[in-house]
């Protein structure tokens, strides 16, 4: 998020706010310039009140980039840090988990290296068992109120991640159907994705009943 968004969010909520550091879409193999951007973004996030940071970086052969992660972790400290779903693109998730633990990450977000947390449930459970409390394994990816109970019970996870979004129609009265501001596959101009309060409350209720 931009510093302005972070500042406003911090004014509006009481829960801890973790900021994702990701200079672009695509893979997780970063150039030297992109690393400069990531370090600058971390410093700005800390300056504007972030309670934790989230990032991930890989080598070209699908391993955790220990050198880069060590450098970024140093900039993040003393804040807690989560390794995001770049983990799902690693060559060997069991080896990668040990690497993250040794580096000092507090959490790892994963769909179990599959298309969704439900599909990767068996690996998520195996990772949680291997972690033995040394790192928090957080299931994420396609989690909804319909499958959360199965994922939490099947993975033995104590935390989870989901967007809990819904589409909201734009308030624009005048609409030009001949112009699109982005590529054809991007979100339409007259529909906005927002956090759905009802979904969040339902998910929280399910989780509290299980955990």
UniProtKB/TrEMBL annotation:
Keywords recorded for this protein, A-Z: Copper, Cytoplasm, Metal-binding, Nucleus
Similarity field: Belongs to the CutC family.
GO molecular function terms noted in the UniProt entry: copper ion binding
Coiled-coil regions, chain positions: none
Nucleus listed as a keyword: yes
SUBUNIT field: Homotetramer.
Record protein name field: Copper homeostasis protein cutC homolog
Subcellular localization: Cytoplasm; Nucleus
Superkingdom to which the source organism belongs: Eukaryota
InterPro entries documented for this protein: CutC-like (IPR005627), CutC-like_dom_sf (IPR036822)
Organism, as annotated: Chlamydotis macqueenii
Lineage: Eukaryota, Metazoa, Chordata, Craniata, Vertebrata
């Amino acid at each position: 998020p931009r510093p302005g968004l972070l500042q406003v969010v911090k004014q509006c909520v009481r829960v801890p706010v973790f900021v994702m550091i990701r200079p672009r879409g695509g893979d997780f193999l970063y150039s030297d310039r992109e690393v400069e951007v990531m370090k600058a973004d971390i410093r700005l996030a800390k300056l504007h009140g972030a309670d934790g940071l989230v990032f991930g970086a890989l080598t070209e052969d699908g391993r955790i980039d220990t050198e880069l992660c060590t450098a970024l972790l140093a900039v993040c400290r003393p804040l807690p840090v989560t390794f995001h779903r770049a983990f799902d693109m690693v060559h060997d998730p069991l080896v990668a988990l040990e690497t993250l633990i040794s580096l000092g990450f507090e959490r790892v977000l994963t769909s179990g290296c599959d298309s969704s947390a439900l599909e990767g449930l068996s690996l998520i459970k195996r990772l949680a068992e291997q972690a033995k409390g040394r790192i928090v394994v957080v299931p994420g990816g396609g989690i909804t109120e319909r499958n959360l109970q199965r994922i939490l019970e099947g993975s033995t996870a104590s935390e989870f991640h989901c967007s809990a979004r819904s589409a909201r129609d734009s308030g624009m009265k005048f609409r030009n159907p001949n112009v699109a501001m982005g590529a054809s596959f991007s979100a339409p101009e007259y529909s906005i994705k927002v956090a759905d309060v009802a979904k969040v409350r339902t998910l929280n209720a399910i989780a509290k009943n299980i955990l």
